[in-house]
Design a protein that fits this description.
Blueprint (H helix, E strand, L loop, with lengths): L10 E2 L2 E4 L7 E4 L4 E4 L2 H7 L9 H9 L3 E2 L19 E4 L26 H14 L5 E6 L8 H18 L2 E8 L6 H9 L2 E6 L4 H7 L9 H14 L4 E7 L5 H10 L4 E6 L12 H23 L6 E2 H10 L15 E4 L4 E3 L13 E2 L3 E2 L1 H8 L18 H4 L4 H7 L11 H21 L2 H5 L5 H14 L5
Parallel strand pairs: 6-7, 6-13, 7-8, 8-9, 9-10, 10-11, 11-12
Antiparallel strand pairs: 1-5, 2-3, 3-4, 13-14, 14-15, 15-16
Length: 476
């Protein structure tokens, strides 16, 4: 800092002090996605800024790391006149039905279960997807509402149709399917393995936990059927299977982790439940301490395994933060909803996401007519606005890693649709802090260990980093 510069001419960048026992705190620079080790003697003084009196040593350390800057606060306004992103990902509700009776089912509040998609609407949906994604290198079809395997024959027909269209246009095509696995047979598992499918299996952990929340439609426990189907999938395409567990009140994350390890699951995701405050599933403050303790233990295990040359479970909540700390651009939206991604109901109506299906005020068009881009943009600039333009998110230190939370949860479970599901926020922040600590430990031990977390997908991680540098893409 020059002699003529004073604190009045400088500002402290947007930062967050993160504890790092037993080695001292870290300072997370939100604006640049940088991480600094804070000298022990300065950590207490950093919590009081600006200082009550001159603190030359602290000021010099901050200036040397460009944490004190003359640059203005980065602009936080979206270019509302810019065209919406190209649609490349289309989620299709083929069955319009499900064979289970999950207690927290997100489809209950909407009118989405209207029976299977007709063959004519299916063909129109494929036409819509390829027309929307014209010129894009890849088209992705998602199947995540209801139970798509109910309509397996139709699924096979769509797969063949999409592969043929992609070949004609010189594009790649990929399929992302979420299933409860109860109907999966050896034949179905082999079909997925033979085609470009990534599978997500919904299972909430061991039988005692899973059957409490995810019974069959007739009320009977579903776990034996789910485990059977999951094992068939793991036999055929283990690296392309992710298990999603919905994390509810009273569940210990450590139990879910031990269960995932016992089954040899390679990719695992624990998702915070979307639920009304009065429900048994709704996460409460009493659950948070256990969640923090278990997240730290999982991070320790991942670090130790990588340090020793092993291959830990790819645990999405922590891996996501490590990946985002490796990228130079902030994440300003939770997902590509109504942007690169849209949902299609069984009747062909288009919505921002598969979780909005049936909520008529969110309808964006029909596959036979196309999208209403004005409605898309209105949604993206209001309920799905970037985090700096969301009143409940703009001052949160975790916003550029979290992205603002699920917009559909806000519609269903919050009175204020511009707010995230507020019960989730302490969990997001705790999870992100643990992920940042894990990133720092890996980087300090050996920077290559950060990439080792993504052994199956190193090229994609590096390509994504290049894309963000070159194009400054702000959604994932």
């Amino acid at each position: 800092m020059s002699e003529v510069e004073t604190l009045d001419a400088l500002r402290l960048r947007d930062t967050r002090l993160i504890s790092r026992e037993p080695d001292g705190p870290l300072l997370y620079d939100l604006e640049r996605t940088y991480l600094f080790e804070v000298p022990d003697e300065m950590s207490d003084r950093l919590g009081q800024w600006p200082p009550a009196r001159s603190d030359p040593a602290l000021e010099r350390w901050l200036a040397d790391n460009d944490l004190l800057t003359r640059l203005p606060v980065p602009a936080k306004r979206e270019a509302k006149d810019a065209p919406p992103p190209q649609v490349t990902d289309v989620s299709i509700d083929l069955p319009g039905a499900c064979n289970m009776g999950c207690t927290y089912c997100f489809e209950k509040p909407s009118n989405s279960r209207i029976g299977p998609m007709s063959d004519a609407t299916l063909a129109q949906t494929v036409d819509f997807a390829f027309a929307a994604a014209k010129g894009a290198p890849k088209v992705v079809f998602h199947f995540g509402s209801g139970e798509p395997v109910i309509q397996f024959e139709q699924l096979k027909a769509l797969t063949a149709m999409a592969l043929d269209r992609a070949a004609q246009g010189g594009q790649e095509v990929e399929f992302e399917l979420t299933t409860n696995a109860t109907l999966v047979t050896a034949e179905i598992a082999r079909f997925f393995a033979a085609h470009p499918y990534n599978i997500r299996v919904s299972c909430d952990g061991p039988a005692a936990i899973h059957d409490r929340f995810r019974p069959m439609a007739n009320g009977r426990g579903s776990y034996p059927l789910v485990e059977r189907g999951l094992k068939l999938l793991l036999e055929e395409l283990p690296e392309r299977v992710t298990v999603n567990s919905v994390f509810c009140s009273g569940t210990r994350l450590s139990e879910l982790w031990d269960w995932a390890q016992s089954l040899g699951i390679r990719h695992y995701h624990a998702i915070k439940v979307g639920a009304d405050e009065e429900s048994d599933e709704h996460l409460r403050s009493r659950d948070l301490a256990d969640f923090i303790e278990d997240s730290a233990a999982i991070a320790d295990e991942i670090f130790t395994t990588l340090k020793n040359g092993g291959r830990p479970i790819d645990y999405h909540p922590l891996a996501k933060t490590v990946r985002r700390m490796m990228l130079p651009q902030p994440i300003t939206r939770f997902c590509g909803v109504a942007g690169s991604y849209v949902g299609v109901r069984a009747d062909g109506a288009i919505y921002p996401c598969f979780r909005h299906l049936g909520l008529e005020e969110y309808r964006l068009g029909h596959v036979s007519e196309g999208l209403d881009d004005e409605r898309r943009q209105a949604f993206r600039h209001a309920e799905a606005a970037e985090v700096d333009n969301r009143p409940h998110c703009r001052d949160c230190w975790a916003r550029y890693i979290c992205g603002g939370g699920c917009y559909a949860d806000s519609v269903v479970y919050e009175q204020d649709r511009l707010a995230p599901q507020t019960a989730h926020c302490p969990y997001w922040r705790a999870e992100i802090e643990e992920g940042i600590r894990l990133y720092h430990r890996l980087r300090s031990e050996d920077p290559l260990l950060c990439l080792a977390m993504f052994e199956d997908d190193v090229d994609r991680v590096l390509d994504e980093a290049d894309a963000r540098i070159m194009r400054q893409v702000r959604t994932f």
